Amino acid sequence: MDALGKAATAAIVAEAYLSACDARFPDSQQARQDALAGWGHRVDLAGYERLIASAAMVMPDLDEDLEANRARAKALVDDDVAKDSSVCGDLRATLDDNDMFDIARPIRYLLRNADSFGIVVAEAPTEVTSPELEVVSLIALSAELAAKMDEIGSKSGAEQDRDLREARQNHAENWLALRPALAINGRITSADTLREWRGDQQSTFLASCRSFASDEQEATMARDIGAERVVIGQIRWLREDREGGELSLDDCRVLDDSQFDNDRATVADESRGLMLRPLDYAEAYGAPGAGIVLSDIDRVLYDAEFANRMDGFGNGYTQRDEDIYVLLRDGTAYRHAWNFAFTDLNLDLSRQREPDRWFTWKDEADQLMLTQSGGLDVGSTIDISEAKRLMPVPEGQVLNATYYLLNVGMGGVRSDREYAFLGDGQLRYSRSGFVAGSFGTSYIIASGKRAYDVATGAYSFDGYTLLIQGPEGEERHFVALIEGHDADRPQEIIIDGQVYWMRTNEQ
Question: Are 328 and 296 a contacting pair, CB within 8 Å?
Fold first, then answer.
């Protein structure tokens, strides 16, 4: 059984390296355990261990032989690590790059042909769960999932190791699948998603419904957006993200939580199930002029990159990366991503709940650098030396030109918006969407306008705010001019964080 010898050798040597390295460098033990867990998932080490346990019942000398091999491997590896401990610094590379540890195929062969050798491999053990349906809050469940995945390896290790990430996800999915169904309590946040809110925080995991028990249940979820409900469904898959993740459910049913008693499954420490809840529009918007004060601003910058790409279906699309940065005189900076002006921002809530949008900045030696102050990427830097300066539209300015945005996104979906400013202070603005196909490297764009996409109203400018008196009342949009452009007839204008181009007679 050459396959058994290869698999056993790899498993024994990997274990020996882990033991020798942990003895010498205990502080980095977690990283090596993560490496072994990721490798073990890739090669199905759990399947090998079940095979060995079953094989020992029909091969009396197997345990003794394996133990002797472990002793020899330990002595050799201990000596090897004593001479060169570099393997301890990156055990993952050793397991990935050395052919000795490429044992996925031998293990598959052994498991598939075990019966031929008289070995009956036991099924993977499962936990015993209650057959009763238990309602659990999504925050408590999120905390439980974090702990369950840590049984396999660390979250930080999984960020760098796809195999470990899959192993963590599969372990949590299998644990969830033992339940007759998932009954989750939370707030309906869209027509197919549920998340639990708790003040300024929310559950790290989002639950999404990929299918419903009936059309009526689907309509109920869409109707009850913003309400507290219990969603019952079958686990379809689990995905772990850098922060939190998503539970995908099938056959969803939506019930009023009053139909259940108030008892909910709880955990001793819910902190791992909580994360900052991002601001919604109503929270982010403070009031006119209640946000960043113009006198506190050093400069406002527009940093953009456009690239033509192809999606997986051969459709051409434009990737637009556009960012607005507000650099303050106190050395801090804010990445503005709302469609109202930063002068209307709720500053206190933004600093608290949008930490990933705040930076410090330095302008030295012709290099303008941002350093992120909070969020997952705290300490990371961004070079915005090539960004363009923005200016507010002069007070009382009127324009007499049409500006348009045309973008073809992934899947050939066209986004087409237009602002037609008239010299009499009136504005006509429209937007429409069409599907565009591709022919070779050229784009075939469907065009046209629909009457209900067009609105009219009076407009005026107030610093970085475009005020529109539209059909549904006043609208406040972020607006800016690129420095150096003629304010009376700019070739480009920034509206809601995106650049619009002046339409000429030929367009």
Answer: yes
Taking residues 74-92, report their average pLDDT.
Answer: 94
> CA-CA distance, 274 to 306, in Å (whole number)?
36
Q: Which of 56-60, 265-269, 327-331, 450-454 has the highest mean pLDDT?
A: 327-331
DSSP string computed for 447-462:
----GGGEEEEEEEEE
Most confident of 44-53, 142-151, 174-183: 142-151
Which amino acid, residue 213? Answer: A
Give the whole-angstrom CA distance, residue 196 versus residue 187: 5
Which residue matches tokens 């460098």?
A: 25
d(CA 269, CA 140): 8
Q: How confident is the model at residue 264 (pLDDT cuts 50, 70, 90)?
A: low
In angstroms, the CA 285 to CA 135 distance is 36
Question: What is the CATH code for 401-502?
Answer: 2.40.128.300
- CATH 2.40.128.300-classified regions of the chain: 401-502
Question: Which run of H or of E encompasses 368?
Answer: strand 367-372
